[in-house]
Structure formats: structure tokens, C-alpha cells
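Support reply, case 0932

Customer input (verbatim):
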Amino acid sequence: MGAVLELAEKYWKGEVTTYERHPFAGLEMLEEVAERTVFYNAFSGVTAFDTDDGLVIVDTGTFFNQEIVFQAIREWSKARLNTAIFTHGHVDHVFGVPLYANEAKERGWARPRVVAHEAVPPRFDRYILTAGYNGVINQRQFAQHVQWPTSYTYPDVTYRDSMSLTVGGLRFELNHARGETDDHTWVWVPARRVLCTGDLIIWAVPNGGNPQKVQRYCGDWAAALRRMAGLNAKVLCPGHGIVVVGEERVRQILTDTAELLESLYEQALRLMNEGATLDAVIHSVKSPAHLAKRPYLQPVYDESQYIVRNIWRLYGGWYDGNPAHVKPAPEAEQATEIARLAGGVSALVERARKLAQEGNLRLACHVIEWAYAVAPNDRAVHEARAEVYGRRADTETALMTMNIYRAAERESREKCEVPKVS
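Our regenerated output:
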């Protein structure tokens, strides 16, 4: 057993938690997980299958580590890349193919084929159209500079519902399922009993809410996981996190994740059907208590409340049930009126600090944002805002939540020296 499988065992037993070592913090190592099959553990997972007619690779790495992945695969096998399968079009899964294509050209091999769902090309088109926006939100989400890619390897072959490929005598069954994305593919290799889930499994609360990204599909996602659980796979290679080995463990992670999604979905829809507002829904729906300690369902990236918001967005649109929000006054006008009622901006600043010190950070954030909307260049406002969001970030576990608050804190710390507005 090598380092990858050792870490997998420690994760499963709770000897290492996803709070101590985030599931996206890969080892940058690969290990054989089935006959002629390796899993490369990095920020995003890469699974490679050796066949009698070259390699088949499910996901090929992200734009910032594609060369490292390529070299690791080449140390394991010198066989040509026959086919690359993209589980979806996210930029952390679809890079590196040109490295194999250049190699093929130099050696006189056939160019590698790329296979994906038919919705992947439109995703790439959208990414090019919104490159600036994606760079901004991903910089905030991951708390580091992101130069969003604008060049992609489009698939040579696409499919709609399902597709079977045979390469070198080995069959690969591709299945579409809307989940984290609308273009998702999960791959089943029955002869080796290996299941590649893509981001339908990420060793954390499913990324089904993500407040800065497009629609997710909770119900379809759960149904796909249930279907996978019936395959009796022996090895599960996830989109993020560590490999899962053993029929019982594979079935458990699939069914537990499905149960979490189903519970959120059913609770949210029931409340919506009863006429509840979005505010009532997001503060009423709760995750099943018996899943709270599962090592692979911790809120270290996304959160259940965000998933609930996405369920509302899918079925309820943007109206949240508050009629004042249909055609609202500008936030600055609302905040100015609140400040007048409170006795001025300084009263809001003082109150936000007191709430934060008392631990009521949710309310403190609202109050300081009112002050910020009225006086966006006031040093005292920024000092208090940095304090409030710094405290808030310290209490969070989900990476995307934490980094949104850190971005606000950083923004105000950088502006603390701006002179007060007279």
C-alpha cells in the first residue's frame, strides 16, 4: 500500500479529517488502485486505464498542474493516449490533452480522441465569453489570483444520455447526470469494477450550492448516486478527494451522499409547496443528524444551506417571497434611512462591533454593510468591517464561505487609510 491508499484509509477511519487536510489538497502522487489502473491524487483526481490499444484517461488535470500530471502518467506508462474522457467541463478537469497530442505528433501516433457530454462545448463557449467574471469570482473563492483560461480542447465525440466505448478490449460505460453541472458524466468500467464519479463525489458536502456559480441539480444528482450504488463497484475514483476502495465503503459513500441531497431536496420542496418564503426555507431545512459525522460529508467547501438556495433557484426563480424585494430601492438609499433611524453611521458601526463581540456575527454583518453602503470611504467603517468579517471568517469551515468573508475583510483593510468623507 502506497501513500495514496494509506491516506485513503486514514481519511475513512477519521485518523485524518478533512478539516486537518482539505480533500482538495492532493498528494500530487499516483497509485495503482486496480489492475492496470491508477488514480492520481491532486487538487482534482485523474484516473488512467491501460488497455491493449493505449491509455484511456478520465479527466486530465487542471490548467495549473497539467504538466505535472502528464509527467506522472508518463512515468507509469509510455503507451499512447487513445481516449480522454471529460467528466464535465470545469477547468480543473479538462487540461493536458495538448501535451499528449504534441507527443503523438512527434511519434507518429494517432491524435488522442476526446469524449464528453454534448453540453461541454457550450460550457467552454460560456467560459470564453465570461472569462473576466470567472477570474474575479474564482479569485475570491480560492483566495488567490486566477488567470481564467480562454483556450480549451473541445471534444471530438459527444453523447446525450449514455454511451459505451470499447478501447483495447476494455468497455467504458458513460452516463449523463445533471448534478454539480448540467454536463456531467460518470464512468463505469465493469471489467475492473472501477467507478469514476467526477465531482458527483468530492469528499465533502456536495458542491450543490456554490453561491457564485450557475445552477446545480440536487434531485438528479441523488438519483445518479443511487444508480451508481447498485453497480457493486470495488473502487471509486472521485473528482476531488481520495480514492475509496471496497464494495461496502463505495456503496456507503454513494448512498450517504444521496441521502443528504434527497433530504435537503424533499424538505425544501415541501416548504415551497406550503408557500414558505426563501428566508423561511433556508433557515428551516436541516441536514440529517446521523450524517453529520461522516468523514466524507463535512462542510469544508460548500454548505447545505447553499444547496437549499439552489433548489429554490431551480424551482422558484429569483423572487424570494418578500414583496419589497420585487422592485427594491437602491441599497444605499435603504441603508441611509436605516442610519437616520439609528442615529447615524457611527451608531451602526458601534452596534456592529458590539454584536460581533457578543458572537452574533450574522447580524453584525448586516449592520456593518448598512454603514458601508452609506459611507463607503469612511475609515472607521472599514476598520469595523474588517474586524467583523475577520471574526466571521474565523468561525467558518467551508472554504468558499470563509474566502468570501476574507475578501471583504481584505478589501476593508486595504481601504482603512482612505480619508473620511466630510
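We compared this against your earlier run and they match. Two observations from our side: The first strand starts at residue 29 and ends at 34. The mean pLDDT is 96. Please reopen the case if you see a mismatch on your end.
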